[in-house]
Specification:
Shape: globular
Largest sheet: 8 strands, parallel
Number of strands: 8
Radius of gyration: 17 Å
Distance between the termini: 43 Å
Strand content: 15-25%
Order of helices and strands: EHEHEHEHEEHEHHHE
Length: 243
């Protein structure tokens, strides 16, 4: 690993998908810059990457704050290296009936899954455009395609993120920047699914829920695509999932 190693930024490097993506890119020689609201919660991930011979930096960052996001990208470019990949992976999944959905909840979910995605994409584009290359990936969900009962806030935010990704792909693709929107259409092997949906988690041994490491493989594949055959959108789901 050298000072000139390419940098991958993962906004929302959680314990499952985000962490798996970070580890996958680290194995390919990238220096990882990973963020969560609390940098201390990233210590285990950073230790894993470094134990495997990689290099990682943890940042506590509110991705909804324009000032913090501008500062984050400026710091990484100045102190760590050129950002080649930016991945937005904040979840913000909540479920409330429409009459129980407060303005505060709706606004916060949109800020986390929509507005924060805009800030990430804009700042990534600013540093990538002068170099004429880079990859920006926004994590989508089932709610990106259809709004389910009780998911008005989440679906509204994920629809907005999908529209952002489409608009950015059309604008930035001809300028050498690959913008992709993978849709995770199924339950993921996480503590949340294990604790709250045990019947679904029981399908793990039958490959009935998504393995975060396998999701991460597809993110790497998106970045590695030659530009004459770029994918903008793909969907990932277990073989037994209906759609």
């Amino acid at each position: 690993m050298t000072a000139t190693a390419p940098v991958a930024v993962v906004i929302g490097a959680g314990d499952a998908t985000g962490g798996a993506i970070a580890r996958r890119f680290a194995r390919e020689g990238f220096t990882l810059c990973v963020t969560r609201r609390n940098a201390d919660s990233l210590s285990e991930l950073v230790n894993q990457i470094e134990a495997d011979g990689g290099k990682a930096h943890a940042f506590g960052c509110d991705a909804r704050s324009e000032e913090e996001m501008v500062g984050l990208f400026e710091h990484i470019e100045r102190e760590i290296g050129p950002i080649e990949v930016a991945i937005f992976n904040i979840g913000a999944n909540v479920r409330f009936g429409i009459t129980e959905t407060t303005a505060r909840v709706y606004r916060k979910v949109w800020e986390m899954a929509g507005f924060a995605g805009f800030l990430t994409g804009r700042e990534a584009a600013r540093v990538m455009l002068p170099r004429g290359k880079g990859t920006i990936i926004f994590t989508g969900a089932t709610a990106s395609l259809r709004g389910g009962s009780g998911f008005s806030a989440f679906a509204g935010a994920k629809f907005a993120l999908r529209a952002l990704a489409q608009s950015m792909a059309r604008e930035l693709g001809p300028q050498g920047i690959h913008v992709a929107h993978p849709i995770i259409d199924g339950a993921i092997d996480t503590a949340f699914i294990r604790d709250n949906f045990p019947e679904r988690y029981a399908l793990k041994d039958q490959d009935g829920i998504l393995n975060p490491d396998h999701i991460a493989d597809q993110y790497w594949a998106l970045h590695a695509q030659p530009r004459d055959s770029w994918t903008h959108e793909l969907d990932l789901r277990p073989w037994m999932e209906t759609f």
